[in-house]
Structure formats: C-alpha cells, structure tokens
User: What shape does this take?
Amino acid sequence: MKIAIDGPAGAGKSTIAQLVAAKLHYVYIDTGAMYRALAWACLHECVPVDDEQAVAGLLSHGQIHLRREQDRQCVLWNERDITAEIRTPEISQYASIVASYGEVRKQMLHLQRALAEQGNVIMDGRDIGTYILPNADVKIFLTASIQERAKRRYLELSAKGVDTTLESLEEEIAERDKRDSEREVAPLKRAEDAHLVDTTGQPIEQVVEQILDICNQTGE
Assistant: This one.
C-alpha cells in the first residue's frame, strides 16, 4: 500500500506521517526534507537559489539520502548528516524557492518514485497525491489555520533556542503557502480523492487514529 499525505507548511505532515508509518510498519519518506537538503546545499556550496539551472545542476551532481537510525529519520547530502541543520526558518524559505523550479521537480520526481518502490510506504509533501503518486491507495490532505501552524513552529524553534516571533512566522507561512500554491509545476492543492483532515486544535494522537481509520477502511 502507498499512502500520500499532502498539506501546507506546519500542518504536522512529517510528525504525523512518521507516527502512522511506525504504527503500520511502513517505510516513511519525507520529500520536504529532500528540498530542504537541496536548499542547504545551495547555501553551503554558494549556489544562488534564484538560478534555476545552477540549482538543478547541483542536484544532478549531488546525492540525497534518507536514512532511518534508531528512533529518528536522518537526512544526508553527499553522506553528510544535515538533519538538524535543515530545520531553520531560512532553510524553509529557500526550500520553497528551489521547490518551485520545474527542472528540480522533474529530478525529484524520479528520486521519489524510486523510493516509493520500496514496498509499503507513506510519503508526505505538497504534491504527492496529485503528482508524485497519483495512484496512491490512500490520499490525505492535512491542513490547519495559519495561526495554529505558526504557534507550532514557534514552539519547535524556541525549544531549539532559535529567536523568532509569532508574527514573523505567520508572515513566512502565509508567503510560503502563496508560493507553493501558485507555482507552475505541481502546485500545492488537494487531490480530488483526498480525505481532508484539519488538525487545528486536535492532539496528534487523535489525528493519527483518524488517518489509521481511513487506511483500515480502504484496506477492507
């Protein structure tokens, strides 16, 4: 079975997808982390993120790996573990930019579909159910209010010692939503056959159970 989870930034996709994957013993594939890894590589290899051809060229010559180690998912660029380094507001904004490039998305499409062939998988992103895995057995569209998503990101960053404000995060999330929804290639949108799950005000465990129920109903 292949499960696609899509939704805007901060809706809880990664956390929830990992928990569902653990419950079902599925392989978890975080496509957003792949774009973050590319954004990180652009910054650290001095490739301008506003140059589509340069960014695509960097991706074609680099290697992104997702590796499960004990209880965490590791993201590697050319075998360097950059898991902790890609979860900053700066990388979030740059990831949204590089993800808007058609050539980059074409390359990622092949990488992500190859990963999906590992067997039972759950993959999260913004275009999984509409573009990467249009024939996924289960499609979920996770959403939440901008205020809720900003609050979650604020708590996450504050716990890591990152200095930010709720107001600035709300602005960044709104800007990213706009960019992701309006890009020409594979924009963020709900697939026609996707189940809508609004996580606003819901505990994570409740959302996980809701998705597991949908998966069980599909498998019957």
